[in-house]
Design goal:
With 143 residues, this protein is α/β, with parallel strands linked by helices. It is built from 2 helices and 8 strands, in the order βββαβββαββ. It has helices at 37-49, 97-113; strands at residues 2-13, 16-21, 24-29, 53-54, 60-62, 70-75, 118-120, 127-140.
């Protein structure tokens, strides 16, 4: 999962705004073969507690809930690409679309269970993502 601390972000499909947030986290979610519902739950739990927002001293000690932030979750199977050799990515490690959708939805529901406002992209769609990265602050978050 790739996360970016943002001042605002939105996602469009065919020119229609389908999800937007103010301050919070833009999260690109890639599902790989072998991932399970528990993987989605644990990543959501880790994300909501991940301290990437500044406290009064300017240190990253606050999580998305501490700042009343939101999450924009966007599915992105290309995160599962194998880029180790050649000049073209391979996607054999990406989950099949049915599993990808199921685990993406499980991740979103797990975030909501933590009382975090969540907007989403549209799984499998051609999306345009607009954001104002705050910092910039970007992390690859893994289990």
């Amino acid at each position: 999962m790739l996360l970016q601390r943002v001042r605002e972000a939105r996602v469009e499909v065919a020119g229609e705004n389908i999800g937007c947030i103010g301050q919070g986290l833009l999260v690109f979610v890639g599902v790989e073969r072998g991932d399970e519902p528990d993987t989605a739950r644990r990543l959501a739990e880790r994300l909501v507690g991940y301290r990437v927002f500044a406290d009064a001293e300017g240190k990253m000690n606050r999580d998305v809930r501490d700042v009343a932030g939101e999450v924009l979750a966007v599915s992105q199977f290309t995160l599962a690409a194998d880029t180790r050799k050649g000049r073209r990515p391979g996607f054999s490690g990406a989950a099949e679309p049915e599993l990808g959708l199921r685990l993406y939805q499980a991740f979103v529901e797990a975030l909501r269970a933590h009382q975090v406002p969540v907007a989403t992209g549209r799984f499998g769609a051609d999306m345009q993502v607009h954001l104002v990265n705050d910092g910039p602050v970007t992390f690859l978050l893994e289990l």
